Amino acid sequence: MAVAVQIEESVALEVSKAAAAIFARSGDLVAEIPVGRILEHATGEMLTVRAVVVADARHVEVIADGDFDAVRSCVHQLVADGWSVTVLVELPASGEAHGELRRTGCLIQPWWVVDESIVFGRVETP
Q: Is residue 105 within 8 Å of 85, Cβ to Cβ?
C-alpha cells in the first residue's frame, strides 16, 4: 500500500526558494518554475510540478509533493532531454520516493524543517 504525503503549496514554494538560494549563493543563475515550462510534451499534473532550474548546468531540482506519478513522468522526460535531475522529497516520503523513482536516472534529496528553516539531507540514488 503506497502512502502519498501531500505538502502544502506554500511549503513547496519555500522548498524551491531554499534550493534556489543555495544555487544563487554559488553564483548560478536559477529560476523557480513549473516543470511544464521546460518540457516539450508536458500534460496534466506535470504542468503543476514545481522545479528549480539551473539552465547553465542543465540541472533541475524537482519538488515532489507526494504525486510520484507526475514527478516520475517529469523525471523521465527531463533525463531523456539531457537534464540532470534531483528530486527534493520531504523526509517522511523518502522511502516511498526510493521505490517510485528507482531506475529513472534521477537522484533524491530529502528535506525537512528545523526552527522554521528548510534543511536538506544528503543526495541519494533511488
A: yes
The pLDDT tens digits of the residues spanning 100-116 come to 999 999 999 999 999 98
Tell me the three cell numbers of residue 70: 507526475
Distance of CA 95 to the CA centre of its chain: 15
Contacts of 72 (CB under 8 A, 6+ apart): 100, 101, 104
What does each C-alpha distance from 58 to 78, 81, 118, 119, 126 come to in angstroms?
10, 10, 24, 23, 20
pTM: 0.89
Average pLDDT of the chain is 88
C-alpha span between 58 and 91 (Å, rounded): 25
Burial class (CB in 10 A: 0-12, 13-18, 19+), 114: exposed
Per-residue pLDDT tens digits for 43-87: 888 888 899 999 889 999 999 987 899 999 999 999 999 999 999
CA separation for the pair 20, 70 (Å, rounded): 21
